Structures are given as C-alpha cells and as structure tokens.
Amino acid sequence: MTLTTSAYPYPVLEEERFDYINSTYQIKQIKSDSKHIFIEHHLVGADFIVDLLQKGLAKFVITVVVKDALFRKTYDEIEQTISVNRVVQKIPLLSNEINHSFFAHVVYVGEDREFELNYKNLDKFWIGRKVKLLKGSILAKDGWRDLDFGVGDILKIIKDDISISFDSEIEYENGGKIICKMNKDLFEKVVIRGSKDLHVRSIISHILSQALFKLSKLDEIPSNFNSIIYKLKEEGIDIKSDDFDPIKASLVILPHVLGDLDA
Prior knowledge:
The chain is an alpha+beta fold. It has 5 helices and 14 strands.
C-alpha cells in the first residue's frame, strides 16, 4: 500500500481506497415522499468500524446541502435499525422544488484516543499499527449525491376526452415530466380506488412502461429523469441498451411513483 499526501492517518472505507479488504459502504435511497427521503446505510465487512458502532463510538450520519437556500445540516437520527451495520435514516426536505445534495458517512463520536488495529478486514499495512482517532473523524464515506425526491413527482395524470384508455408523453418544461392523458371513466376509477388497488397499480405500471419506452428513444433525456436513470442502473437496467425492457423498468419505478401520485 502506498501512502500519499492526501492519505488519512487512520483507515477509511471509501471507493477506490485500499485501507480495507472485502468491505463496502453501500448507500441506497429506499423511498421518498413530498416531505422526506429515506436512506439506507449498509456496511459490509469493515470490522473495525462495526466494532466502534457496537460500542457506541461511531454513528451513521447524512449531511444535506441545499445551495439555493444556503442550507447545510448534518442528521444522525436513526429511523430504523436493521442491524448494527445496517440502518435507515429519514431526512426532511426543505422543498421538493429545489435540488438537495447529500453526503453519507460514518463518523467517530467518542473521545480522542488511540486504537491498536488488529482486525481481519484491514489491509495488512494497518495490522498491528496504533492510530489516533479524534472526535468527528470520518471512518467511512460515500461521494456527494443528489437526492432523488423527484421520482414520486415525475408522473401527472390528466382527465381527458381521448377515446383510448390513456396516452403518455414526455413533457420537457421545467426539467421534464410524464404527462398521461386518461379517459374520464378510467380516471374516475383510478381516483376512487386509490394507489393501493391492484388494478390501479397495473394501470400505472403500463403508463410508466409506455413512457419509459418513449424516454429511451430520446437523444437527450430531461434532467428530472436523472433520478430514475440512476435508480434503474442500481438494478442493472440501462435505458439505452438494445435489450432495454420498459416493463421490467416500470416495476422498479412503480413503488416510488405510487408514494406520491399526482392525479
């Protein structure tokens, strides 16, 4: 292992760093609504960090930045603990009309002290070494990301006089949106039954499938769909690939759209 001038004086779990072996720090946005975003942290391996978490000496945190509002805040409250190395945070949004960025990390919250490193997931460079951690030291980190709170607001259904059941188009204004024109009878059924109804879910899935197919044919994809593209890539789906399946893609996006359906 080669140390550089930008190296930390202690091991840090981060992509393209080599302080840990067989270890990852995974961040996943699991759901959202118009007021909150839910982010899951999942630490795999990294037994030194897990040991600190078990002892209450480390915490999962999210720092949110909204440049347009000159806002920056770090949240350490945990909404759900799945295990000591896997938790969910519920992050409030200032508004679903402005861009939020977030930085997920694990920080040391104990008193300044020295640790001797004898953990199997560490690179051999660190084994047997003593390092000093200061309160607030970053132990694991993910890069800056944009919150994809817009997924639930990406579809708008409009009651229309069309003769067919529905027809969806991609709107380009204000970053883009799926506009679905739906005939009056079907529209009223959707509104009455609500998004929990299985038939309604099937209808919305078909709308998304049609729209995603049209989206895949565009030379330039509107910016509001970046969160959808990212989410699909997390599931191994490339909207521009020759074998792109809009039906499969719609099932990935469906739960996020139903969370805040605009009809």
